[in-house]
């Protein structure tokens, strides 16, 4: 797959830099979503480039969602975006299902992407588990819709956590195969942006597993809506080993849980792991955990308070998403039209 993307020579310089990313409203927001994605979204918004952030409700329903819960979570994720610093005037914020171009382009990509590529997607294997026959077709085709999300805007950069790397490779391969098959230089080779100390925040209960909103154990994650006591309790109970913290990075080798807590501390305090270890090296977890809890509460409490305030005005959230969808459509519609022309689909003008 990699080869197809690399051999494609579409010069990205020909595309205006544009950032796109999305989060599923399939549960509450976690600290992993915040550190791995949303904070990066805000940085990119502030860098002055055009930024488009989506609440991917069509991806969410690839596994069962209670309708009322989906609605609430769509609004809550939007509130999280805004509370964490995304400004609907600067960034385009909208929910995916309001912009039909995503589904329309996804169909075309369903006809470009190969079954073999999809079968190699580790996220499908993880999510479908042993019961793949019972998984929805949407879950299997999920990465083609993701490619459509990104390429409907000719996005050049996509900030994500580590777990999305394979999906972004598939996006590049989809663009490359489309360009190759139709003999065009139409879709860009989108760059994943996976940077910082928190690209893979791990479970608080098991340092080998990603922190996830779908983990059955609530103690495994910090939710953006957790109150101060809950955050402190979860960090106090986080699994660790009996040794004190090392003063150098290499002392964290083979200590997944310790590394995770240090990474979280570094990300929350905008410091490097080296800086943090210089300060806390030699301390026991009994001393470090309260420091981490205080820091997490100081950073997260204002966001969850603002989310709760915004959730009291659901009409305002819906207006933001509606306006964002109109702006998104203005970019995606002409790109879809040109795609249809390339494919040879007749449309009356
Ligand atoms: P989702 O909803 O699972 O996660 C949203 C974002 O949060 C990041 N993330 C993490 N980062 C660090 N540590 C963690 N423990 C952690 N958990 C989640 C994810 O990497 C992601 O960036 N397929 C995507 C949604 C999507 C999308 C897109 C993303 C749909 N279309 C187009 C980018 C562009 C997903 O399931 O993310």
From TrEMBL:
Its EC number is 6.1.1.2. ATP binds at residues 24-26, 32-33, 161-163, 201, 210-214. InterPro entries: aa-tRNA-synth_I_CS, aa-tRNA-synth_Ic, Rossmann-like_a/b/a_fold, Trp-tRNA-ligase, Trp-tRNA-ligase_bac-type, Trp-tRNA_synthetase. It comes from the Bacteria. It holds the Pfam family tRNA-synt_1b. One of its GO terms (cellular component) is cytosol. It is found in: Cytoplasm. Keywords: Aminoacyl-tRNA synthetase, ATP-binding, Cytoplasm, Ligase, Nucleotide-binding, Protein biosynthesis. Residues 204-223 are annotated as: Disordered. L-tryptophan binds at residue 149. PROSITE patterns: AA_TRNA_LIGASE_I. The keyword Signal does not apply. It catalyses: tRNA(Trp) + L-tryptophan + ATP = L-tryptophyl-tRNA(Trp) + AMP + diphosphate + H(+). A motif ('KMSKS' region) lies at residues 210-214. Its main location: cytoplasm. One of its GO terms (molecular function) is tryptophan-tRNA ligase activity. Residues 206-218 have a biased composition (Basic and acidic residues). A motif ('HIGH' region) lies at residues 25-33. It is an enzyme of class 6 (ligase). GO terms for biological process: tryptophanyl-tRNA aminoacylation. Catalyzes the attachment of tryptophan to tRNA(Trp). Homodimer. Belongs to the class-I aminoacyl-tRNA synthetase family. This is Tryptophan--tRNA ligase. It comes from Sediminimonas qiaohouensis. The lineage of its organism: Bacteria, Pseudomonadati, Pseudomonadota, Alphaproteobacteria, Rhodobacterales.
